Amino acid sequence: MATLLLLASVPMRLADQLAQAQAPFLVKSNSTGKVTRLSGASDFAREIALCPTRYVLSDELTRICAALAYSKGARTLSFMDVIHAPAERVWIEWCEAPWQQELSRYGFSLAAHSSRAAGRRGAFVYSSPDGRRGLVRTFWSGGDSKCNVFASAMEAHYDLDAPRQAEDAACIAQTHRTYRVVDNEVADAATLRDCFWFSFESSWASYYETARVSAEDLQRIATIALGTIALDIPLLLSFCLLLGTRASLPQRSSDLVRLNRCRVRDHSAPLLEHIEVDAPVLPDRRESSGGPGLPTRRRPRLHHVRGHLERRQNQLFWRIPHLRGSAHAGKLKSRTVTWTFDRSSAAAQQSSAGH
Predict the structure, then answer these.
(1) What b/e sequence results for 86-116 when a residue is b if at least 16 CB atoms lie within 10 Å of its CB, and e otherwise?
(2) How far is CA 31 from CA 34, 36, 211, 214, in A?
(3) Higher-confidence residue: 282 or 228?
(4) 83-87, 210-214, 234-238, 249-253: least confidently modelled range
(5) Which of 9, 12, 149, 336 counts the most CB atoms within 10 A of its CB?
(6) pTM (2 d.p.)
(7) Residue ranges of the domains in the chain?
């Protein structure tokens, strides 16, 4: 009984909120009074409920993925040849608070997100069988209520083989007005620009077209809409990168049978099964203080070491952002983590990209 009470006290996950969302997203024109239904959270209730793969990231893993994504020393985009979506339909969600903390750490303004610090974020990914091309739609919540769930007005289209698939990108660009995002502060920024492009979802695009929004106002609206989806993309790439390593990430399937039995008995909707994904074990290596008769050097002052990502063939080395040195001449900590990719997997990705 105590276990059931503990499980019942866990805040509702975003996937469950979406699966239970029913209210359509309606907007009313101030000039004509016309009511228009736009694509919103409730339109994905069935998709999320039937999604075969749902990942829920721990707070620590969210921080690590964000550090890989936003640190100026990171080169996540250099690994596009081994990154791929883990399934043709996949849901990935995380808590907003640790994500915001990392964004703030790397210089992003949180004025537009501060009110959602207690909420959750998620992304629904449609992918090709090889995981290299597809579409992403993002969602967020402001609390536990299924009424406080929102969907991005924009979709992110991706082609991780984009430099070799320029024709496909051009065809999509002719159908919808597209937007590219470049972050010149991160390494390999051009890769993000080439592999991802954003456009309003069709109902939203039609709405703005019918409303005859001026080019200036549309650009302003697009900038706001991009802010609800573009920042999620690097984090998703980092998660897929780590998930594809040989050791992968610690995973645990949820077991909601007993809890859902109680919920059904109380006439509540059952919760969705999912996979909880945790951070990898990060070893701490301590620098030797020198043995008898060996010269010792003066410890450096306490300072911050930024994250740095390096690739050597099929291995990925990540120096996690950390504090080095000690004001009290303590021991130094070095946090270097090595992840390895299967050579066959990387070769297969490169082979499929070449065809």
Answers:
(1) bbebbbbbbbbebbbebbeebeeeeeebeeb
(2) 8, 13, 10, 16
(3) 228
(4) 210-214
(5) 149
(6) 0.79
(7) 10-277, 301-354
